[in-house]
Specification:
It is built from 9 helices and 9 strands. The chain is α+β, with helices and mostly antiparallel strands and 284 residues long. A 5-stranded antiparallel β-sheet has the order 2-1-5-4-3. Strands 7-6-9-8 form a 4-stranded antiparallel β-sheet.
């Protein structure tokens, strides 16, 4: 039963040396059983003053439970919970028993939950800004800050295929600095697929990651990140990449503008109306 346990169980003598260990200890710390026996127990932990005092006086620490940081054979560290016990049978000398429970997965789950709750709060805030028709620049700056914060990126660029200042569709940077190595937005706007051309240019730079914002199966905007933490580019940020009818990607730049195409009948009858006419709200 002790060997199939996921917890590490260590019997330690008065000198802090491991006398016995279960299979769970070998799995947790990555040592063969033969290497654990005779090893100073402090070698399995990142030792601070508190832990050092506990290990130096195990006989008076019975029942003590404390968080510790374990250290595996290859140097990896993990969160754990240490419980100090003591067992004595008849006239035999008492045994100091350390039970170590790996808390790393639980801590990761807690951190992930906290991050998801924080991100949902930000998404609700952005939706409220959109519904209240907040200034475009304010919304974009909030989105920009959110992507930087939740992906730990060094730089973020938000760009959309939208209506420019000249009432023509073009590639428009919405927030963040345009990288010097890229062609100018005006140049990319002249290509057949401006956003695809932008993503290809960034793909040539190994430190950049591009996330397309899709609408109707077409890329309508992009989030470009410099050196993001890849593990944070999971499903939790997908709501920020999913446009809604009030999404920042499709808000006309000029107040009071109307659809440049007066007769939208043919477009509206298409199964997939163009992104252009979805933006103006004239297509179902």
């Amino acid at each position: 039963m002790l060997d199939v346990s996921g917890d590490s169980m260590l019997v330690v003598d008065q000198n802090g040396v491991i006398d016995m260990a279960n299979e769970g200890a070998g799995r947790m710390f990555g040592y063969p059983m033969s290497a654990l026996i005779g090893m100073p127990v402090r070698q399995l932990f990142v030792v601070d003053d508190e832990l050092l005092s506990v290990l130096a006086a195990l006989e008076v620490q019975t029942g003590r439970t404390m968080p510790v940081e374990g250290m595996g054979s290859s140097g990896e560290r993990f969160h754990a919970m240490l419980n100090v016990g003591r067992f004595q049978e008849d006239i035999n000398r008492p045994l100091n028993i350390l039970i170590v429970r790996d808390e790393h997965k639980r801590r990761l789950a807690e951190n992930s939950l906290e991050r998801s709750v924080a991100l949902l709060s930000v998404i609700s805030e952005i939706e409220a800004m959109l519904l209240s028709r907040a200034e475009r620049d304010t919304v974009f700056q909030r989105l920009h800050h959110t992507f930087l914060e939740f992906t730990s990126s060094e730089q973020c660029l938000l760009v959309a295929w939208t209506m420019g200042d000249e009432a023509e569709e073009c590639l428009v940077p919405q927030a963040g600095e345009w990288p010097d190595f890229l062609p100018l937005p005006q140049q990319l706007s002249q290509t057949d697929m401006p956003l695809a051309a932008l993503f290809r240019s960034l793909t040539a730079q190994p430190s950049w990651v591009s996330l397309p914002v899709m609408l109707g199966g077409e890329a309508a905007a992009g989030v470009c990140l410099l050196r993001p933490t890849l593990s944070q580019l999971g499903i939790s940020i997908l709501p920020l990449l999913a446009p809604t009818p009030t999404s920042w990607v499709f808000t006309p730049r000029k107040t009071g503008a109307s659809c440049p195409r007066r007769n939208c009948g043919p477009c509206c009858r298409r199964r997939r109306p163009s992104i252009r006419h979805r933006r103006w709200g004239c297509c179902a």
